[in-house]
Amino acid sequence: MVVAAVLRSHELPEGGKVYKELGNRSVLLLRRHGVTYCLDAHCHHMGLSLANGEVTDVEDTPVITCPWHHRKIGLATGCLVGSTGCTQQRQRTHEVREVGGTIWVNIQSEPEQQLESDQNKSSFPSGVLG
Ligand code: FES
């Protein structure tokens, strides 16, 4: 487990999305409807970047849509979201706390249960996939 102060709150405005490398993981921080989320930055499916994914709501559930094959991933749960609702968690999410104007993330660097996105946790060569 790695707990890290990653951003000042004002650096992640409403609707914002920030890419970070923390410990041995690449993550995205996002703010939607005033809530801050953190999840692995590379898609559980084929490891491609979610950095340019569109953030929307599906039936009141905030999701990011992978720009490559259009899977919709719940920001809070890491589950696929669609007509059947939220199914098995595939994308790892990370606990976020915001204290005194600082955003802290608790990175599960060595989780007990492996998820699909753990295979793609590290960054790709700079400038290739973001
Ligand atoms: S890489 Fe295929 S859905 Fe994300």
From TrEMBL:
This is Rieske domain-containing protein. The keyword Nucleus does not apply. One of its GO terms (molecular function) is metal ion binding. Residues 111-130 are annotated as: Disordered. Its cofactor is [2Fe-2S] cluster. It comes from the Eukaryota. InterPro entries: Rieske_2Fe-2S (IPR017941), Rieske_2Fe-2S_sf (IPR036922). It holds the Pfam family Rieske.
